[in-house]
Request: fold
Amino acid sequence: MPHLLISGGTRGIGKACVKLFAANGYKVSSLSRTGKSDELIDGVTYYQCDVRDPGEVDLAVNSAIRSFGPVDVLISNAGISVSGLAQDFGFEDYRAVMDTNFGGLFNLSKAVIPHMVSQQKGVILAVSSMWGQTGASCEALYSASKGAVDSYVKALAKELGPSGIRVNAVSPGATNTDMMSTFSDEVKEVISEDTPLGRLGEPSEIAEVLYFLQSEKASFITGQIIGVNGGYLI
Ligand code: NDP
Reply:
């Protein structure tokens, strides 16, 4: 049984991935701060792990590997957003956003790469954001953290391709999850109007692209940032 290790599998986009992969016969290890999901899904093991902490990540990844074997697919999905004027963000905001959104990818990939290299195969996927490509007013830190994710994905793809490991990112537009619940209905309306397909995305629509990217159907795709944004960013 292939093994998916994913961060943030308890809610939103991560939870949609967990459901999709488990339904397709994957053993799934989900890492999140609470380790708790409101819905327990067959074939999924939940680990309490803060992806900002390299020690916690190593412990959780090693425990998952001991239980379910080598990680075939890593999805670095856990993320947080903060909104506000750039001049008002504090150092704590900077650390929280960078350490979660980019540090999570750094810590998780560092933990799985040696195992993937020794097997000469594996897939690493990151959930980025279209704001990492284009920048969002009042989300400067968030945009920068996702820009770092995109660059890291491209560099890792070059470094790990010769070892048979593919690395890609999915770059969602505004998607209906808890993360969007901090935005008012008016803001969501404006985003929908600015989106050619006229609505926000659903978590399952992001999960389907991640599933494709890890499959053999995507065997010649690496180093790409795939936009899933209803045409918001063209
Ligand atoms: P949610 O807020 O719905 O879920 C976030 C998940 O990440 C939760 O499972 C949460 O669990 C986990 N998480 C957060 N911080 C940490 C941490 N430090 N360590 C471990 N787990 C953590 O977010 P979304 O599903 O909306 O977002 C998923 C990804 O998609 C993020 O990277 C986000 O930036 C990206 N994205 C989202 C968009 C959107 O509009 N929703 C648009 C573009 C990109 P817990 O709280 O238990 O830790």
Observations:
- The first strand starts at residue 3 and ends at 7.
